[in-house]
Amino acid sequence: MKRLLSAQQVANALDRLYQQIKSGLPTDEPIAVIGIRTRGEILAQRIVKRLQEETGLRVEHGVLDITFYRDDLSLRKGMPLVRATEIDFDLDGKVVLLVDDVLQTGRSIRAALNALADFGRPKAIRLAVLIDRGGRELPVAPDFLGKAARAPANTRIQLHLAEHDGDEGAFLITPGTK
Amino acid sequence: MSDANDKFIWTRKHLVGLDELTAQEIAHILDTAESFREVSTRSIKKVPALRGKVVGLLFFEESTRTRMSFELAASRLSADTVLFTAKGSSVSKGETTLDTVRNIEAMGVDIFVIRHAQAGAPHMLARHVKASIVNAGDGQHEHPTQGLLDIFTIRRRLGRLAGLKVAIVGDIAHSRVARSNIIALQKLGAEVVVVGPPTLVPSAIAAMGCDISHNLDDVLDEVDVINMLRIQFERFGGSLFPSIREYSRLYGMDGERLARCRKDVLIMHPGPINRGVEMTSEVADGPNSCILQQVANGLAIRMAVLYLVSQGTE
N or C: which terminus of chain A has fewer CB atoms within 10 Å of its end residue's CB? Predict the structure, then answer.
């Protein structure tokens, strides 16, 4: 496991992402911020908290588990626990800000878009990601981006957030090694 | 949900009984069902998890309710279903169970849900077919999804299972529901007392590690849950107790007995209920009853089971 971003670099990227969101989101439309489990959920929480503190905007907040919508479900064997999706409000007519930690192939976002469609018809869906590492397999692009990063094709970027991992930073993991 | 459960990976391809499962596996099914409950609250009550898969419902023995529950669970996961019932089928033409199942499997079935009068039929099939096997009740042996939905309902209502005392009342001797309940409850740390007349509560049941009582009134104030099993009139013509009236007087729940229970006691029944026999309407429709929640939770449990076995490899 090799460190890619320090805690400070993650904080800077998140701040950049937040500033873009703050200036890019409409102020006269109902907004719902939805994080993709697990770390997108935590990023979404932090963004919602700051939006409410600094702008006074009233934003709804939900969590999406995309497991059932993955297109590789039948390719993966032995799934970890599926968590519930928590969207207990109406999405119709809202501007939805979808939040994820790392964007690569775009398949998670495709799954998330399908899942959101089962909950209603948002006015618009915007995508915010903390780290874009390239390597897209589907036509997906973020509307708001914290940091672009480069990583070798055979590696995975793992974000650590204090709420879930105890520390902060981004790490490069090569599958099959410790 | 603990971190240990978070990391746990489900590997089983079949669910033939709760006896084979570890406490952690049972808890994992309940945790997964918790996530599936949410799907049933959506306006579009469907997720694509099993899209393109086929679930074969093989009811060698009739059961409308369990069949509907599994059918709906499969369709909420976007699977297709095919239904086989013994009545008027190849079974009456003399085909063996294994041949029947192999023929249906050849049509491209991924998961079989099996209800069979013969104890052990699902185990036999699990050894001989490639598809996943889910036991929906085999003879007097097990009914794992009923046991799971019962303990899921208890855990949701009372917040825990460990340390609870559960009374199971009625025909313990012939009941696969009782067996699956006893196994699951004990694995997750609950204590079980079985209650009924000696003809329906054999002393051999003590080997399963539960207490035995032939007097319902003795246990009323010491249990957290009372699960009233159905008297299966269709299976034996009342030869095991003198009369229905007497059974009801000795082992039926009514308002007067309920008043002697703990205030938050949970009253359960796997259905279909014989009103006035196992319990009065006052009890069945009262605030302590969770009979309809059992039915709703059954759907979430069956979605979880179908989903998990479809991911399993062994």
Answer: C
Reply yes or no on domain A15-71+82-149 having CATH 3.40.50.2020: yes
Contact A64, A50 (CB under 8 A): no
Domain boundaries, chain B: 3-142+295-311, 144-292
Q: What does DSSP say about strands A156-160 and A169-173: parallel, antiparallel, or unpaired?
A: antiparallel
- Strand partners of residue A158: A171
Q: Which residue of A has its CA nearest to B52?
A: A74
- Return the CATH fold of B3-142+295-311: Rossmann fold (3.40.50)
What is B144-292's CATH topology? Rossmann fold (3.40.50)
Helices (H) and strands (E) in chain A, counts: 4, 8
* Distance, CA of B241 to CA of B172 (rounded, Å): 13
Nearest to A69 among B11, B31, B48 (CB): B48
Phi, psi of B303 (to 5 degrees): -60, -45
| Contact at CB, A119 and B37, closer than 8 angstroms | no
Q: Given CB atoms, is A90 within the 8 Å cutoff of chain B?
A: no
Which among B181, B175, B180, B196 has a CA at the least distance from the CA of B278?
B196
| ipTM of this complex | 0.74
CB contact under 8 A, A82 and B307: yes
pTM of the model: 0.88
Encode chain B (314 residues) as per-residue pLDDT tens digits: 444 456 788 999 999 999 999 999 999 999 999 989 988 888 788 899 999 999 999 999 989 999 999 999 999 999 999 999 987 676 777 789 999 999 999 999 999 999 999 999 999 999 999 999 999 999 999 999 999 999 999 999 999 999 999 999 999 988 999 999 999 999 999 999 999 999 899 888 889 999 999 999 999 999 999 999 998 776 665 577 788 889 999 999 999 999 999 999 999 999 999 999 999 999 999 999 999 999 999 999 999 999 999 988 88
pLDDT in tens, A76-91: 656 667 777 888 888 9
Whether B144-292 and B3-142+295-311 are alike in CATH topology: the answer is yes
Phi, psi angles (nearest 5°) of residue A61: -140, 125
Nearest to A81 among B32, B42, B52 (CB): B32
Q: Is B303 helix (H, G, I), strand (E, B) or coil?
A: helix
Who among B7, B10, B36 is closest to A79 (CB)? B10
